[in-house]
Amino acid sequence: MRTAALVLILAGALATPASAQLRGKIQIVKPEAAPAGLRGVAGGASQDAPRPRGDLSALVPAPPPVRPASSPLPAEGGQCRKTCARDYYFCLSAEDEATCSPIWVKCQARCGG
User: Where is region (Disordered) located (predicted)?
Assistant: First the structure.
């Protein structure tokens, strides 16, 4: 009994979208053009003065972002060593692995061993 009710509900749910397609095409209403655009009547005089073509001052690229200094080392020894280990891990995952060991040794020395 439950199976029959479930089958009837599913059949009705699946038939609803199929019957919606039989109603016909969707009508598209094309809006009429406005008499003036957002910037006024087309072909009107420009209010801005034209800039000379040789002016490249606006095209100078921005300088590269400044890399922040590394965070100060924590006062606690264990936390300091964890910070060094984390920095060393990320240094090894980067492409420049040659500088990782000296940086890690200096960090460990600052932590006190």
Answer: 39-77
The two tokens of residue 82 are 């964890």
Rounded distance, CA 62 to CA 59, Å?
Answer: 9
Give the long-range contacts of residues 79-86, CB within 8 A, separation 24 or more: 80/110, 80/111, 80/112, 81/108, 81/111, 83/107, 84/108, 84/111
Non-local (6+) Cβ contacts of 81 within 8 A are: 108, 111
19-56 pLDDT tens trace: 556 566 778 888 887 666 566 655 555 555 555 566 66
Looking up tokens 């003036």, which residue turns up? 36
Instruction: Return the SS3 of 49.
Output: coil
Residue 84: other Cβ atoms inside 10 A: 20
